Amino acid sequence: MDVAVPRKDPAWERVQLARHAKRPHTLDYFQRLFTGFSEIHGDRFFGDDPAIVCGMGFFNGQPVMALGQEKGRDTKQKLHRNFGMPKPEGYRKSMRVMNLAAKFKRPIICLLDTPGAYPGLDAEERGQAEAIAISLREMARLPVPVISVIIGEGGSGGALAMGVANRVYMMENTVYSVISPESCAAIIWRDSGKAELAAAALRLTAPDLLELGLIDGIIAEPPGGAHNDFDLSATYLSDAIKKSLDGMSSWTAKQLVDQRYDKFRKMGNFFEEVG
Amino acid sequence: MSWWKRKDPSLSAPTADDKEKTVKTEGLWLKCDSCSEIIWKKDLDKSLNTCVKCGFHFRIDAPERLDLIFDDAKWDEHDKSLTSTDPLHFTDSKPYKERLAGMRKLTSRNDALIAASGLIHGRKTQVCAMDLRFVGGSMGSVVGEKITRAIERCLVDRSPLVVISASGGARMQEGAISLMQMAKISSALMKLDEAAIPYISVLTDPTTGGVTASFAMLGDLNIAEPGALIGFAGPRVIEQTIRQKLPPGFQRSEFLLTHGFLDAVVKRQDMKDYFSKSFDFFLGPVQ
């Protein structure tokens, strides 16, 4: 007979897997998913944000626009990428690149992995909120297929700014939340050490979001988590993207915009008195 | 013994029962949070809750705002019965359900936003006003749905839209569902934009987080009351991130104006005229 082993809260386990130091990042997937990748830099206003990587590539021979938030692997890279926390110029770059894709009718694939948009002085000065808001509105208008996949941390508005998509998927061990468990715990209990409790309360795992009707599907990971086998993780991701792209290949621009709109329009839970 | 005992009871201090002896002063005078001027409540009412000396804008709640904006303070409320369902069964220091019930009692409102319509200098307008008293004016499903429906009403009869924000951001008690309201409202505003129906966003003290990062920054005109705190991250979070004190005036209306994120800073007294002037410009005079 099995002896019951006290387990950590499953939600918190997922948070830790989503943030795992050895987890594949956007660039790891780009290498495996796309051929002939050519990076596009800069927002044309202020600068180039290394926390978001965008570029042209070929997915199974099909030209696609690929975008993703990159956290960086070692300390030097992490600092360079600002730990995957984009600044306004990052979101303006991503929107510029998405509009470029729209102009030439290329599908858009976004990989989301960020603790959140950067909450710093310079980001505020340059309009972090405005940059995210514009992204949300403009993504709703895109006349091409958009697929967003949470590959690690889906940190609130910072992730959503690249997540208004026709298909939104989460990898098995990822989280997508309105606030980080630490910040949530700090607000509720004035103690960020209670993040484990907050993680459970927030319902931020992939099965939670699927159940709440906020995502379209979950992409499996290799046993133990994506960090155990980058290639296999990329294969699973690739299969899901391919299936999804094929499914939308015959859709018109109007169908794409309408489907995306209707999907988000339905999100929300409330009671209403009839009469 | 008589040295220490009061013989005459009439000299005793007034008790709570002696109503005519106590003068109730509470609420008659107020101290300005900004310049410390002592202001007579009636003067404050006359100046629409702005300081008579320094012009500081006190926070006001949603019904008061709507009264100020609409002709003869007359307006119809829409979607009043929408209430949150607590989809996560969220519990912190107390269950979210209880928190909501308490808030409903306190504010006699169902959620943090009133969707109203009425006339502004004769022009039919949809106005949504947020109420900071209700869970910090936070945006959950109900706020998201009410604004989206207001936008849909605008699309039907081409009436312009005003949203007056006062919010700490997305409501964490509704988790990712709150987050998705940002996408829902912003998508609806895309439709309003395509239909060329004007939308004025008014940011009041404070407007932060997911509210700023969605509909509050998407107006054809984004305006703010003087001195309002406006930002994505709150000042405390930024100070923790950069580990230094923020300069005075950081994230205030005037700061955003000089950094190019507001079209104008408009005093409460001038707000209504600003709306009607702008709508006249965009849509022509009222028929």
- Reading side by side through the largest sheet of chain B, how are the strands ordered? 3-5-6-7-8-9-10
The structure class of chain B reads alpha/beta
Provide the β-strand percentage band of chain B.
15-25%
Number of strands of chain B: 10
- What is the end-to-end distance of chain B? 88 Å
Commentary on this structure:
- The complex is a heterodimer of chains A (275) and B (287).
- With 275 residues, chain A is of the alpha/beta class.
- Chain A contains twelve helices and nine strands.
- Chain A has helices at 10-18, 26-33, 75-80, 88-103, 121-125, 128-139, 156-160, 181-188, 195-202, 206-211, 230-248, 253-265, and strands at residues 35-40, 52-59, 62-69, 108-114, 146-155, 167-171, 175-177, 217-219, 270-271.
- In chain A, helix 1 crosses helix 9 (195-202), helix 4 (88-103) runs parallel beside helix 6 (128-139) and helix 8 (181-188) packs across helix 9 (195-202).
- Chain A is globular and about 50 Å long.
- In chain A, 52% of the residues are buried.
- With 287 residues, chain B is α/β, with parallel strands linked by helices.
- Chain B has two domains: 16-58, no CATH class; 60-283, 2-enoyl-CoA Hydratase, Chain A, domain 1 (Alpha-Beta Complex), CATH 3.90.226.
- Helices cover 33% and strands 17% of the residues of chain B.
- Chain B has nine helices and ten strands.
- In chain B, the strands form two sheets. In chain B, strands 3-5-6-7-8-9-10 form a seven-stranded mixed β-sheet, sandwiched between helices. In chain B, strands 1-2 form a two-stranded antiparallel sheet.
- The mean pLDDT of chain B is 90.
